[in-house]
Amino acid sequence: MAAAARRAAGLLPVLLSSPSAARTPLRRALSLICPHRSYRLLSHPARPFSTSPFSATAPASNGAAAERTRELHLYNTKSRKKERFRPRAPNGEVGMYVCGVTPYDDSHIGHARAYVAFDVLYRYLRYLDYEVRYVRNFTDIDDKIIARANQLGEDPFSLSKRFSDDFLSDMANLQCLPPSVEPRVSDHIDQIINMIKQILDNNCAYVVGGDVYFSVDNFPEYGELSGRKLDDNRAGERVAVDERKRNPADFALWKAAKDGEPWWESPWGPGRPGWHIECSAMSAHYLGHSFDIHGGGEDLIFPHHENEIAQSRAACCDSSINYWIHNGFVNVNSQKMSKSLGNFVTIRKVIEMYHPLALRMFLLGTHYRSPINYTIEQLNVASDRLYYTYQTLRDCEESCQQQHKNSGDSLPADTLNYIQKLHDEFETSMSDDLHTSVALAAISEPLKVMNDLLHTRKGKKQEKRLESLAALEEKIRVVLSVLGLLPSSYHEAAAACPRLASRGITTCGPWLYGAVAHVPRQPHARAVVLSSPPRKLRKEFQAQPVARAHVTRNTAPVARRDMAASALQHEPHLLLLAGSGGRRHRPLLRMLPPRAPFLHRRRRWPLAVRVSSGDGGGAGGFASAVEKSSVPGAVGEDEGARGVEELEGEVAGALELRWPPWEGLPERYKLIGATSLAFVICNMDKVNLSVAIIPMSHQYGWNSSTAGLVQSSFFWGYALSQLPGGSLAKLFGGRKVLEVGVVTWSLATALIPAVAGFMPGLVLSRILVGIGEGVSPSAATDLIARSIPLQERSRAVAVVFGGLSFGSVLGLLFAPPIIQNLGWESVFYIFGLLGIIWCIGFESLKGKQLGSNKGLNLGQSSTGSNGLASSAVSSESSDLSLEDLQNSLKDVPWGAFFKSKAVWAMIYAHFCGSWGHYTCLSWLPTFFSEELNLNLTEAAWVSVLPPLGSIVITSIAAPFADNLIANGVDTTKVRKICQTIAFVSPAIFMMLSSVDLGLPPWETVAFLTSGLALSSFAFSGLYCTHQDISREYASILLGITNTVGAVPGIVGVPLTGYLLDSTHSWSISLFAPSVFFYLTGTAVWLAFASSEPQDFSRSKSES
């Protein structure tokens, strides 16, 4: 405990210490708060190049090194695995270089994501008592800077200096500690020229007309970081094409001067450095040719960092970097945020509306290597969580200052347990590759305990209570310090959160809504209570900008008054109350000014407020406080879930209850719902033959082998259509392919009764059904991969593919009575008609979306305003040539697919799961009818139980998986857990339900139902992995695995019938093969499966 106390007391000075001897105690204190001015005071002079880059750094003491109780493990991109961190220097000195920005525009939150992540690494290394020399550069001369300067008519150096200063200000606002050194390229031209000379001397570069190019052919190790070969370059990567190059992959070390561009003299003539050589030269200058950590965004892996390795080793053969660390992208509408794509949101724009540390908390809420999807809703959650944290710590600080604490007494045992648990969870999560989301979650319980101590006392003595509060606050302070979330003042930070949020109308999560309105007819009214439907008040009330205060049933009275005072200070006449009725609003109403009316909602009338686009201006109006473009989604999406939408009509801000309730839902939810409905119809059409096969076999005299042939013919078309379906979905968009698939299988289903007596015609019809249904999974996967973020992926897959289980239930429920009452032919007509109706409705939905929101083209070439990324080619285009399709297929890295162990694991797992699924789906009704002696209706009803259980299990498994990922659990581990449950469970229950064991019928039904229901965990395992490892090629990957997965339908279904005719044993023919494949599939999955983005999936677009 003494060591822990010493660490907590000395943490802040350790975090703020610097290798520079020039830093003073005053500057260390200023850097805690990190305002703009103090940040600039902390710049460091460049250190001369030396072979000992840590010569000016005080060595870590042996005592400090001995106190490192945790072993830090970091994911090394080069080795593609987590490795224990071991610094090169024996005394614990660490060298870290992070590629900086190219300052030609305002920094966006993609930059914030990168530098917040490495700031946390910097802080945590210092927390572990390492002495860190942190270097982060500015590329202050570059093609983009020159182009922007010419556009603005500004000097390139002046422009880069201006945006560099703005970047420093942004980093200060986000409380990123200043690096030890922040070198600029323009100050290190001599070092760059010297390194190029060394590379030329070592015969790894050549000169062409004043340009110097690196020769990748002379560097055999080129590609070892990214795992790519020279012919793997993709469109969008910064690999310049120049016919003068010996190899297209050769890159510029020095560029000859052009008119109007800055230049420096060199042995090869006037010019300027290339992009890649800058970092190699500056990192070697400040850290030596070999150091510990090199970091940056994952878009820099190739070509930038790959080229850095080549340059550095060509200049010095001993050059070596131990750990290559890369952060994931920030996505906007499921597409990487970058300046070059024009979809970026600047840091400054965000912190105008939110506390800067709310943005930092939002970024730390996702593991640094995982992609994070930027949404207003998630920022609201982070802001509310930050406010709750600071409010609790502020109240704790004030309480502890009011009375004297008896420091001589020991802390209560439960308090010590909470402190120790927080300490262990924090260090464990941070030492496991910086799982900041888990570290943030670790403070939730201590904060709850502190609130209990503050407001309920829990029967503790006053002195012990204050000591417990102080001890818990001290430990949380340590955690917040390492995460960079410790403010200069809890009171000021807590007050700033609701004040900033009040600049616009934001969502209040699931809480109920009240709305303030201006009431000119009742100027002296103190409060107006809404007691009638909103429609009657449309002409009486007019929506206005509001401040807000969150009031829940558990909010303490003191907190309510504080929130009201803070909100009223900003907008003295307007207040938005989240909550509903009751006594908890009375103290707030008493604080309202006489002319501040209060519009309160009744429980039965859900309200939402948004200012119409045609109004809302004026002095103090909503438009004057925040840009309207930042508001959509802040209210509309969440309210839409409750069936509420603003009325764009004669009165601005008028309220109206809308029907249907999904009218205001986010478009991605509508799309997923419609796709799921298609899959419901899909399996209804698939299982109807499983029931109809019994009367059809009697009518046409089919034996088990013939019946198996009829059922398996579906899988011929299903297998043939998988790869074409995936490729077409990538080219045309999943939406168009899904529509064509539904039309195909619906028409073919309706055709079956007409050709049932003609076996070739029947087989052909079933093949067409298989083709139509075969393209649908790839189309749906394309839609999910492009429109759903990682944190929602398991649920989206479960909803869409769970429609198959629901379709099985409906098909098995309705097919028997339809067949018994109307004949077996009728089931094909009715179910086929449902698909045609769906297509008409889907077209109507698409037309409505395109008409009401022209920016929305799901699965098309543009990125819609709803936030869904799109396919490369518009799904509305009809003039694509065969050459377009051929070119699209040429771009697919087929060879790389089959070199990936993860892909092979998916292929085999899909085969194994499909064997059990398809054989059971086809033969269970017959098994229940013939073996368990159930009649047709009873057999069908019993056959409903497995898919019905699957629906229940899916609703549990999907949130379970998403919550694990959201809480920082490794995605691969989550997928392995889910898929293992999906395989092992049915294997066990099939063994128990074997008829050779002589179990009674009800036990057999129960065991089969349980096993097959638990197999739906695969929707959160295997079926998500395609999108995990490559969003771009997810549809094609599913096409590959589904092709192999269709083989059990082709082979397994008729083979089961053949074995049944030969052995007359359901155990041998149906259960034993399934158990074998389930168990071997589990072994392969655990050994080789991975959800890490594969080499072929990385997008290399540059920020």
**Amino- and carboxy-terminal Cα gap:** 46 Å
| CATH fold name of the domain at 667-1097 | Growth Hormone, Chain: A
Count, helices: 38
Low-confidence stretches: 1-67, 234-238, 501-659, 847-881, 1098-1103
Q: Give the name of the CATH architecture of the domain at 667-1097.
A: Up-down Bundle
The side-by-side strand order for the widest beta sheet comes to 4-3-9-10
Indicate the overall shape: globular
CATH superfamily of the domain at 667-1097: MFS general substrate transporter like domains
Radius of gyration based on Cα positions: 32 Å
Query: What characterizes the major β-sheet?
Result: 4 strands, parallel
The counted number of beta strands is 21
Q: Structural class of the secondary elements?
A: alpha/beta
Helix percent reads: 55-70%
* DSSP strand content: 5-15%
The level-1 CATH class of the domain at 667-1097: Mainly Alpha
Subcellular location: Plastid, Chloroplast membrane
Cofactor: Zn(2+)
Pfam family, one: tRNA-synt_1e
Membrane topology: Multi-pass membrane protein
Describe the protein in words:
The chain contains 38 helices and 21 strands. It is α/β, with parallel strands linked by helices. Strand 5 and strand 6 form a beta hairpin. Helix 23 runs antiparallel to helix 27, helix 25 runs antiparallel to helix 37 and helix 33 runs parallel beside helix 35. The protein is globular, with a radius of gyration of 32 Å. The N terminus and C terminus are likely disordered.
Quick structural gist:
It is found in: Plastid, Chloroplast membrane. The protein is of the alpha/beta class. The strands form eight sheets. It has a four-stranded parallel β-sheet, with helices on both faces. A four-stranded antiparallel β-sheet has the order 5-6-7-8.
